[in-house]
Specification:
With 320 residues, the protein is α+β, with helices and mostly antiparallel strands. The protein contains nine helices and 17 strands. The protein has helices at 36-45, 58-70, 82-92, 115-120, 126-131, 168-177, 186-196, 256-259, 261-266, and strands at 19-23, 50-54, 75-79, 93-94, 97-98, 104-108, 138-149, 155-160, 163-167, 202-208, 211-217, 219-223, 245-250, 276-281, 284-289, 294-297, 300-319. The chain has a 15-stranded mixed beta sheet that branches. It has a two-stranded antiparallel sheet with strand order 4-5. α6 crosses α7. The longest helix is centred in the first third of the chain and has 13 residues, at 58-70. The radius of gyration is 20 Å and the shape is globular. It starts with 18 loop residues before the first strand and ends with a strand.
Length: 320
């Protein structure tokens, strides 16, 4: 934990005070660890007063974020991928509310891919993302509070910022994530088809605010922002500041999983489609299934259905 500057240059506060820079060196399959020196150099060259924290584990990221807020620091920078961002955001909340009022979040992908940054069209490179630590421009954005069933039978609650996937899309990501990194981009292909051959339509009961929908589907997407899985525009109508969760229920034939892929990859123009039921939730979304389906949010396994989703509107400020 330190703040420093090169050549004795004086440090100055950002518009939101000192910034706690919280890095997960294991993020991005270890790519972040190799970028930390460049990230710190870029921060120092801009003369900002900062607190430098390198997490020992994912759980440590959340702890460091909470500790910084408890110490009176309002401005946190997550150095890593969307997993790191989610862990920092979860560290901002305690007992259902943010530890400090309107905490400010910056994202420095550091050689990884950030779907949150992509949704806002912000810079992904180190120099550009560190440059966003300067200035006063912020955007108050929504997050999702998600409750799922844990393997031990209890219920877990976490916050997420991008997209939640239930059913096929979640299973495909989990299978990909378990494959060796040496397979590279082939992991996405193998994970997709491994999940596809096991996917079946299942009955769903979806409660959206005050209405209940009984549907049969093979996948559900719940979008706060637009992107997931390192660049897939799965929820193209979502905007993370409108107080609404966009729900896509895939009710068409299972072959839609690969039929829609070019449209999802290209522009996210897979909606509208007769095989997708579109719903919107402003209050609480609940999904119940006859058998447990996996739930993944921001690339992290959350548990299984039954699951509930609630918008937490505009309590975190994204640094632009």
């Amino acid at each position: 934990t330190r703040g420093s500057s090169y050549d004795g240059a004086p440090m100055s506060l950002s518009a939101f005070g000192p910034v706690a820079v919280i890095a997960d060196p294991q993020a991005g399959q270890g790519r972040v660890g190799g970028s930390l020196a460049a990230v710190e150099k870029a921060i120092v060259e801009r003369g900002l007063e900062y607190r430098w924290e390198v997490a020992a584990s994912r759980a440590d990221v959340e702890r460091l974020a909470a500790a910084a807020l408890d110490d009176g620091i309002r401005f946190l920078a997550a150095v890593g991928d969307d997993t790191t961002v989610q862990d920092v955001i979860n560290g901002m909340f305690r007992d259902g509310r943010t530890i400090v009022e309107e905490p400010v979040l910056a994202v420095i992908p550091a050689g990884t891919s950030s779907d949150l940054v992509r949704s806002f069209g912000l810079s992904q490179d180190i120099e550009g993302s560190v440059g966003h630590l300067l200035g006063e421009q912020v955007y108050p954005f929504d997050v999702m509070k998600i409750q799922t069933l844990r393997p031990d039978g209890g219920h877990g609650v976490r916050y997420a910022h991008n997209v939640a996937e239930i059913g096929f899309h979640a299973d495909a990501w989990l299978r990909r994530d378990r494959m060796p990194a040496r397979l590279g981009n082939a992991r996405r292909f193998l994970g997709f088809w491994s999940a596809y051959v096991r996917t079946r339509h299942v009955p769903l009961r979806i409660e959206v605010d005050t209405r209940t929908h009984d549907l049969v589907a093979w996948s559900v997407i719940v979008g706060n922002a637009q992107f997931a899985e390192e660049g897939l525009r799965l929820s193209p109508r979502s905007f993370p500041g409108d107080g609404v969760l966009d729900v896509l229920v895939f009710t068409g034939p299972r072959s839609d999983a690969y039929r829609m892929l070019p449209r999802i990859f290209r522009h996210g123009d897979h909606v509208p489609d007769p095989g997708i039921k579109e719903l919107r939730s402003k209050l609480v979304l609940r999904i119940e299934t006859d058998r447990p389906l996996p739930v993944v949010a921001d690339g992290i396994a959350f548990g299984t259905t039954p699951a509930s989703f609630q918008v937490v509107p505009r309590q975190v400020m994204l640094k632009l």
